[in-house]
Amino acid sequence: MAELTKAERMKLPRQGMPEQDPNIRKTNFKEVPLGYTPDLAVAEADRCIECKKPKCIDGCPVEVDIPGFIHLVRQRKFAEASRKIKETNSLPAVCGRVCPQEEQCEVKCILGKKFQPVAIGNLERFVADYERSNDLVELPEIAPPTGKKIAIVGSGPAGLTVAGDLVKLGHKVTIFEALHKAGGVLVYGIPEFRLPKTIVQSEVDYLKELGVEVKTSHIIGKLDTVDELFEEGYDAVFVGTGAGLPNFMRIDGENLKGIYSANEYLTRSNLMKAYDFPRADTPIAKGKNVAVLGGGNTAMDAVRTAKRLGADNSYIIYRRSQAEMPARAAEIHHAEEEGIEFLLLVNPVKFIGDEDGWVKQMECIRMELGEPDDSGRCRPVPIEGSNFIIDVDIVVIAIGNSSNPLIVQTTPGLDTNKWGNIVVNPETMETSRPGVFAGGDIVTGGATVILAAGAGKVAARAMHEYVMNKK
Ligand SMILES: Cc1cc2nc3c(=O)[nH]c(=O)nc-3n(C[C@H](O)[C@H](O)[C@H](O)COP(=O)(O)OP(=O)(O)OC[C@H]3O[C@@H](n4cnc5c(N)ncnc54)[C@H](O)[C@@H]3O)c2cc1C
Question: pTM of this prediction?
Answer without folding.
Answer: 0.92
